[in-house]
Amino acid sequence: MKPPKTLPFKSLEQILARYGIRLRPGGEHMMFVSPDGRWKFPIPRVKDVERSYVNSARRRFNLTAEHGVTDEESYGKGYIVRHDSESTGAAGGQGL
């Protein structure tokens, strides 16, 4: 199954909230913030979030398979997201 190109913003907010990541309103972008406030990730104000932003947010907050969080755990069966083979080195330090 090919992964979806977008994820509804509300779904992304709910998924990240399961890991203690909260949304902070901003100007043109909404800011997701880690529980300790150390790591932040801006997302444009849109109804549906592009897959590249979803992948980047997962890497930023250590919500990837490399950190023990599978795609299926994060998204359920309908939202499997593939990752680049490259690592950006962005680490959230959340220990997830």
Would you give an account of this structure?
The chain is α+β, with helices and mostly antiparallel strands and 96 residues long. 25% of the residues lie in helices and 20% in strands. It contains three helices and five strands. The protein has helices at residues 9-17, 51-60, 71-75, and strands at residues 6-8, 22-24, 29-33, 40-44, 48-50. A hairpin with a 6-residue loop joins strand 3 (29-33) and strand 4.
Low-confidence stretches: 79-96
Number of helices, where a helix is a run of at least 4 consecutive DSSP H or I residues: 3
The oligomeric status of these chains comes to single chain
**What is the overall pLDDT average?**
76
Principal-axes geometry comes out as globular
The secondary structure category is alpha+beta
Bin the helical content. 25-40%
Describe the biggest sheet? 3 strands, antiparallel
* Fraction in beta strands: 15-25%
